[in-house]
Amino acid sequence: MSEYKTLFLNERDSVAVALSNIPAGAEVTVKAEGIEKTIRILEPIRFGHKFAVRAIPQGDDIIKYGEVIGAAIAPIDAGEHVHVHNLEGKRGRGDKIVQ
Amino acid sequence: MFIILKAKEEGVTRLFNEKLQFWGYRRPDGRVGVRNHVLILPTITCATQTAQRVTELVSGTVTFIHQHGCAQVGTDYDQTARTYAGLGMNPNVYGVIVLGLGCETHQAHRIGDEIAKCGKSVETVSIQEHGGTLQTIAEVAKIAVKMVQDASLVQRELCDFSELIVGTECGGSDACSGLSANPAVGRTSDMLVEQGGTAILAETTELIGAEHLLANRAANDTVAKKAYAVIKMMENRSIQMGVDIRTGNPSPGNIEGGLSSLEEKSLGAATKSGTTRLEEVIDYAERPTKKGLVWMDTPGHDIEQLTGMVAGGAQIVLFTSGRGTPTGSPIAPVIKISTNTPMFERMNENMDLDAGTIVDGKETVGEVGGRIMKEIQAVANGKLTKAEILKQHDFGIWRIGPTF
After folding, report:
1. Is the ipTM value over 0.90, yes or no?
2. Is residue B209 within 8 angstroms of chain A, CB to CB?
3. B345 in the same domain as B236
4. pTM above 0.95, yes or no
5. Where are the domains of chain A?
């Protein structure tokens, strides 16, 4: 049994949310709509932050709420912190337009 | 409990099993207010200090400080004018004293004439015509004394929730926003619509990435097309500037709280809209023409969207926050709802309700949604919000053109 609260919103999701601070090395169980996964957390995850529930190759979409929230800009392992250092938004990117 | 969640009674699904009413102030145009303010409305930045002095002298008056009203043209002029007039016409306002300098582009008498169409008491004063600051303060204060006393004679009457327009917004979001307070407000929005009322969804910027979910709920094709169109216009503004929208949104506080992209923030923000049909998409500061769920095209900026919704006629605003905020309006009570309990405790003088109980597993989304409905009723009946008590009179217009 996991002692750390997490939220896994949709079975399609590649990330879950920590609802308490989770230390590196902890094993957490995430559940959504009949699926259940146990993940070893690779680095400390703060309350409200996300971790990968499966390996995400670089360039793949990252899914939360069953919808796309961005793309991986580096390969991400299951249990790794997913945030602005390895996830990039795809919308409103005027900086990507080549003049 | 007063909530029956998805309970089927003879085939009818009801979210709230009683008809809700409140004691409101009926205005000459038939609309109903939940407050009875006299508004000193400065149409130009040069008149804001004078207006402020009057509110210090005369109890029952409100005003706001701003930097607009001159050297504005075209659609930018129109949007500012519509905002001023909409605020004056908001049914929470008994009467208005429109205060100008005299030489500004947003002429006080023009705004005053527009507001007077709704039948309420309107007076116009100009600083240049009244021989300077001190004479003007005296003149406005004298008019205000009479107007406040007249306002105090209005008797409240029992009104249905169908007379309410409730604005919804989120500011200072964290990762809990999309899990607790926003879905709870979504449930409240559904309950309001069920009672025949109107809920305004706004913050177009913070719906980028969630527009398909809303367009799928549009009443018709025209509404769906406008939903995509306002999103495209907002997104194009960042593309034309050649910038990553993330440099402004999500904000540093959002990122600290665990939100990584605008799309993630949007999907959480969109839950405020509940599950009902999207009836129309309206422009900034425009009055809804339909009841039910309405989307107002505003930026994500908290104060600009708040001002737009109040100018559109919202009598009450629901504001969810994860990081905490003091936000309030001079005209409409703002009920602030925390997404997590530690912030609710830390910033208790600013927050009205706590939805962190959902994250802790102590309450369901539906239970908190029902609690918010009861708070709307209490506030409509006169309960003061924290922002009103702290005199948090925020004001900001979404400017869409340069100043010349």
Report:
1. yes
2. yes
3. yes
4. no
5. 6-92
Asked if the model's pLDDT at residue B152 lies above 60, the reply is yes
Domain assignment present for B375: yes
Chain A residue numbers with beta carbons less than 8 Å from the beta carbon of B244 are 89, 92-96
Domain that holds residue B128: 37-152
* % of chain B surpassing 90 pLDDT: 85
pLDDT for B7 beyond 50: no
Domain A6-92 has CATH 2.30.130.110: yes
Residue A57, chain B, CB below 8 Å: the answer is no
Check CB contact of B231 with chain A, cutoff 8 Å.
no
pLDDT over threshold 80, residue B84: yes
Choose from A51, A62, A65, A68 for mutation: most chain B CBs within 10 A.
A65
Name which residue leads in pLDDT, B164 or B252.
B164
How many domains are there within chain B? 2
Considering only CB atoms, B209 lies closest to which of A46, A91, A95, namely A91
Asked whether the beta carbons of B37 and B93 are under 8 A apart, the reply is yes
B260: contact with A, CB 8 A cutoff = yes
pLDDT in tens, B353-371: 999 999 988 999 999 999 9
Q: Is B7 exposed, middle or buried (0-12, 13-18, 19+ CB in 10 A)?
A: exposed
User: Which of A7, A91, A99 should be substituted to probe chain B, the one whose Cβ sees the most B Cβ atoms within 10 Å?
Assistant: A91
Contact list, A76 vs chain B (CB under 8 Å)? none
Q: With contacts defined as CB-CB under 8 Å, which chain A residues touch B240?
A: 94
How far does A87 lie from chain B, in Å, by closest CA? 7
Measure A77 CA to nearest chain B CA, in Å: 17
Q: For residue A32, give the DSSP letter.
A: E
Out of B135, B152, B169, a domain closes at B152
For residue A97, which residues of chain B lie inside 8 Å, CB to CB? 239, 242
The reply to whether B211 falls in a domain is yes
| CATH number of the domain residue B78 falls in | 3.40.50.11900
Percent of chain A residues past pLDDT 70, beyond the cut: 95
